[in-house]
Amino acid sequence: MNAISPALHTEALFAAPSGTPVLRDVNVHFPHGAFSAIIGPNASGKSTLMRCLAKLLPPSSGRAFLDGRDIRQFERGLFAKRVGLLPQQTQFPDGATPLELVRRGRILITDGFDLGLPTIRWPWRKPWW
User: Fold this and answer.
1) Beta carbons within 10 angstroms of residue 38's beta carbon
2) Which residues, listed in sequence order, are joined to residue 13 by a DSSP beta bridge?
3) Where do the domains of the chain lie?
4) CA atoms within 13 A on the CB side of 21
């Protein structure tokens, strides 16, 4: 892994979750050690992009990479230890701490990442890999 390589990036990503193209030829780069923001108008594909990057939605074509490796090659547990997504529509109990919110953004983890919180299970959400 060299210093100029992005942590997460896409190449020619296309996605059409309901048959209508939402992402077309998207090329983005998220560098190591930096905060990144995705901004845009409503229905511009921000959430669709995030779902593709988190392996919750398979792209129609194109690829996404984590540290130079196609995310489709990651085994489920290893990928879950490296990438999490906290959806914008999620309801949280009053008084939830930032640590609890971050923990809820992680996909099923049962070992290797213990914050002292209960494991969160989403039986209705199955990853596409």
Assistant:
1) 13
2) 26
3) 8-104
4) 8
Under CATH, domain 8-104 is a member of which superfamily?
P-loop containing nucleotide triphosphate hydrolases (3.40.50.300)
Helices of type H across 34-107? 46-53, 76-82, 98-104
Determine contact, residues 44/24, Cβ cutoff 8 Å: no
Beta bridge partners of 63: 11
The pTM of this model reads 0.70
Residues 6+ apart with CB under 8 A from 115: 99, 103
Q: What are 90-123's pLDDT values in tens digits?
A: 676 778 787 777 776 654 444 444 444 444 444 4
Which residues touch 30 (CB under 8 Å, ≥6 apart)? 6, 7, 8, 9, 36
Give me the helices (H) in 3-129, please.
46-53, 76-82, 98-104
**CA atoms of 20 and 22, how far apart (whole Å):** 6
- Please give the angle made by the CA atoms of 75, 80 and 85, to the nearest 5 degrees: 135
Alpha carbon distance 74, 80 (integer Å): 9
Q: Can you tell me the distance from the alpha carbon of 16 to that of 105, in angstroms, rounded to the nearest whole number?
A: 24
